[in-house]
Amino acid sequence: MQRWTSDPPLALPIPFADVKRLDLEFEDVRRDAGSFTAFVFMNAGQELPADAGRTHPRFAGSFSVFAPARCWGTDGHCDWKREPVSVFDRRPPHHLTPINVSMNVTDVLQGLDDPDELIVTVHAVHATDRDATEGVLRFARLTALAYE
């Protein structure tokens, strides 16, 4: 299991008291290393056990990404960074192109009691290699989207 914690803590664009809905957006989640599930916790602290799950009071939600663990095609088949071959290239986006994953974490927000900061901890578990500690969850940026 890979453990990832937001550092620095996430900033909210509006005062916490005005937040009616809070979404987390994982931007450019890579899916070229196989399927995995990410368990997301809010302000759980360092005492969060490695086996924390859905029953933990700071559990915010989870998401799964389904992807092949290795390429079965010919050379270049799984190269998601490929460019169009011409201006007339009408192929759809590559099936391994990074995606954005949004989560509504409003429910756990009520239990945070006006925090000074939002710290997100993610436990990511690879589908076939449950002992993998890095390279499971790869993304460009985590953003908090708050709505009044």
Which characteristics define this entry?
single chain, 148 residues, mainly beta, Hemocyanin, Chain: A, domain 2, 1 helix
The CA-CA distance between the termini, in Å, is: 35 Å
Taking pLDDT < 50 over at least 5 consecutive residues as the criterion, the unreliable ranges are none
The figure for the number of domains is: 1
Shape estimate:
globular
Spatial sequence of strands, sheet with the most strands? 1-6-3-4
Radius of gyration: 18 Å
CATH class: Mainly Beta
**Chain-averaged pLDDT:** 87
Query: What is the CATH architecture annotation?
Result: Sandwich
Report the helical percentage. under 10%
- Percent strand equals 25-35%
Count of DSSP-assigned helices? 1
Structural class: mainly beta
Helices and strands, in order, run as: EEEEEHEE
**CATH domain topology:** Hemocyanin, Chain: A, domain 2
> How many strands appear in the DSSP assignment?
7
